[in-house]
Amino acid sequence: MRDTKVSVVPFNQVSADHAFKEGEDNRSLKKWREVHRKAFTPDYKAVGQDFDEKGDCVLEEFEVVYR
Question: What is the pTM of this model?
Fold first, then answer.
């Protein structure tokens, strides 16, 4: 795989387009946020914090170079 785009965006500003490209469940932004909130919350708790909707997410887009 090869990264084609890497960006840092607050959780609450991730776009519907990115959510669709990532392909979670029905590809909606609502489902993306639900799945990722569940994934990120334990990490916040591990450092004694509540999940922060304004916290940064690193978003990657990539292409498959070799199969």
Answer: 0.86
